[in-house]
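Troubleshooting log. The previous structure file for this entry was overwritten by mistake, so regenerating from the original sequence record. Sequence copied from the archived sheet and checked twice against the printout by T.R.
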Amino acid sequence: MKTITYLWAGLLTISLPSLAGNEAIVGMNPVAVAFFLFFIAATLGITYWAAKRSRTATEFYAAGRSISGFQNGLALAGDYMSAASFLGIAGMVATKGYDGLIYSIGFLVGWPVIMFLIAEPLRNLGKYTFADVVAYRLQLKPIKILAALGSVAVVILYLIAQMVGSGKLIQLVFGIPYELAVVIIGALMITYVLFGGMLATTWVQIIKAVLLLGGATIMTIWTLAKFGFSPESLFQSVKETAGEKWLQPGGLVSNPIDAISLGLALMFGTAGLPHILMRFYTVPDAKEARKSVFFATGFIGYFYILTFVIGFGAVVLVGLEKITSIGKGGNMAAPLLAQALGGDAFLGFIAAVAFATILAVVAGLTLAGASALSHDLYVGVFRKGESSEEQEVKITRVAVLILGITAIVLGIAFKNQNIAFMVGLAFAIAASTNFPALLMSIVWKRFTTAGAVASMATGLFLSVVLIILSKTIWVDILGNPEPVFPYKNPAIVSMTLAFVVGIVVSLMTREPEAEEKFEEMKVRKYLGIGAE
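Regenerated output below.
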């Protein structure tokens, strides 16, 4: 680990300046380099510290269940306020206007669902992944297989969005090629998770959350100061610069069914995201799990209000032409606004904050995906629940390497997509595959293994296939003239049918043993008796 730390510090110090100017967009600036190197050095130091404390499976997956509710609330916020939030939503508001708000609201309103329905049962019933809860009173093997496939599908799509955002960001600041930037991010992500596990990931997320909230607050205050601290003056300037349509709905989602589908995905997808659900196992008990959701909701809600001001501020102070000239997805609107406000020095600071944002999220995602492959698939299916902790952690580290390389390759392939939009698709898979089975397994006594398998398979198959047949893949990537599936987000079809199929199949089959265990599960769910 010490060798890796020295290697990274030396490599970044030497290689970044030498690559500057290769395809420079705004040029190299020493402030940006200083911020970036400081953050990387600090997080590698944390990883080195955490590596000495992450030897058992519980320490590696769940930070030894030693994180407090407040710390986990900050880490949850750090895990959730991704590049899609900071770069994607600000870019969406800047390039599409009012409809960017649907992402801000949609990302936020899923948290009460977690607070009241998911957090406490998840902490009391599970061990490392949400599949532990679904399989608590059902048959282990089929549940674990589908849970692992669903989790990996969500993680990969989410990772692509983060890699695209990070590649564009590093390219903007340092002027190095996009592909090289993605490789550097991927290598750092692998280093954090491979050696530091959940403990390093948690503290990287806490630092990132503090930096992001502070950076976004400064940007918002600075932007509003340009308009006399009057939101009305800001909106009037947007109207004069981009037209009245920028302040009206319909710029992004003109079809009402598309709007409902996207809203469903964002609202219920949060409760199915494997890297968010996994965080509830890092706290000691259900009380701390609830407290962490309370703090996370406050931090996240405050942050999304700021992204709206940043997006509209970019329209006026940067201009649409400049934003879209760097990438048609508009992902660089926030960094360009920072440059317009405070020059290259402030751009360097904000870029370092966004960089921290991306690294923290990709680390959490990679750990969740690797846990699904090792804990659910390898231990739960191939070893039938019997494996040493040492072997399980070893398999997790191999899975981290595989996921990291996959994320780098796909991040390069999806270079020009808007990252908030891509995360919306990841939410659709989570809302369709994981959320229905998780909710029904907690609240419905008659839910059976056959019903769970049918629900998860339906949600996963429909959400992935409909995304491929939608305009995003079928037209934009594969080059076909018209999409087969007319809507941009599949959740209204895939999530609804996942619930319907799960209910119908459960009613057609009986599982007396699972029904008997439901009463036992209620005691543990509410009182935490027997919880780890």
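The two ends are 30 Å apart (CA to CA). Archived copy saved in two places this time.
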